[in-house]
Design a protein that fits this description.
By secondary structure, this protein is α/β, with parallel strands linked by helices. The chain has one domain: Rossmann fold, CATH 3.40.50. The protein contains eight helices and nine strands. Strands 3-2-1-4-5-7-8 form a seven-stranded parallel sheet, with helices on both faces. The chain has a two-stranded parallel ribbon with strand order 6-9. It binds D-galactaro-1,5-lactone (15L). The site of D-galactaro-1,5-lactone has 9 residues, from loops.
Length: 273
């Protein structure tokens, strides 16, 4: 979607949670073009509010604070929470309790659409020689993947029961460039991230849709055909980075589960006690 300089932004107020994180910082500057006011939330330092920004720090575990956070919001881009694999308790609080609080707040405040940062780790235990789509059974690769699987189920329930729409984005590896061989398949550029979030916010009807967040890479494990209705058309590719990634990692150890499964290093983390 292209916004002409003179057209009014499509949203009055958008909420971005996790705004101080890696992807949050990228979307903070990019989402401003699509709303009159961008409300930013995180538990980490957000800096100063620029023009048309509102700072609203809140812990996702705090149900009352989250209800306030969603007041007068048209839609939520929910990146907040723990974003890596680790011990269960912090993930339980931020990702499971926190996402429940977010959907309850959406219900109470009448917010009708959520863009949920899910993760490829919901299906991390599929192998790298399989091409899957989002209709296939979940195979989470750890506590983090399990929490995102819960989030997707929560999204489905809140759509079925209350009509709150969600696009669950199973984000691959969204970084400035792919760091290793795995990321040649999982990489999504920041420009494609913006395209995906904007398509998810503006697609007229989404119900609960699930889509892998990935660029148009030559090597791919994820078929987004079931989510073509969202209108996401990635324009970048990991291919220009292939030679550098191969040079950094000339061989792979096929006996290492991290090299065999789509979730990479996440599949061998833990146990934690
Ligand atoms: C994720 O879900 C993480 O948030 C990110 O830090 C990366 O590790 C990414 O997955 C990945 O799979 O590369």
């Amino acid at each position: 979607m292209t916004i002409a300089a003179t057209s009014p932004p499509p949203f009055k107020r958008l909420l971005l949670t996790g705004a101080a994180g890696g992807l949050g910082r990228e979307l903070r500057r990019r989402l401003k073009a699509y709303c009159a006011v961008l409300r930013l939330s995180d538990i980490a330092e957000l800096g100063d509010a620029a023009q048309s920004e509102e700072l609203a720090p809140a812990a996702l575990e705090n149900a009352a604070a989250v209800i306030e956070l969603l007041a007068d919001v048209d839609a939520v881009v929910h990146l907040g929470g723990v974003s890596v694999e680790g011990p269960f308790q912090p993930i339980l609080q931020a990702n499971i309790v926190g996402t429940y609080n977010l959907y309850e707040a959406a219900r109470k405040q009448g917010v009708k659409r959520v863009i949920f940062a899910s993760s490829n780790h919901v299906t991390g235990f599929y192998r790298q020689d399989e091409v899957i789509d989002a209709t296939m059974p979940m195979r989470p690769d750890g506590h983090y993947g399990l929490s995102k699987a819960f989030g997707e189920n929560l999204a489905q329930f809140y759509f079925d029961r209350y009509g709150i729409e969600t696009v669950s984005l199973r984000i691959g590896s969204s970084f400035a460039e792919p760091a290793d061989r795995r990321m040649l398949a999982t990489w999504m550029s920041y420009d494609d991230l913006e395209r995906l979030v904007v398509a998810s916010l503006t697609a007229p009807v989404v119900g609960h849709s699930v889509i892998y967040g990935v660029s148009d890479n030559a090597t791919t494990w994820w078929d987004n055909t079931p989510a073509r209705h969202i209108g996401y058309r990635p324009q970048d590719s990991s291919e220009p980075f292939r030679a550098a990634a191969m040079a950094r990692q000339p061989t792979i150890d096929q006996t290492n589960p991290a090299a065999l499964y789509q979730g990479g290093g996440f599949v061998t983390k833990g146990p934690y006690e």
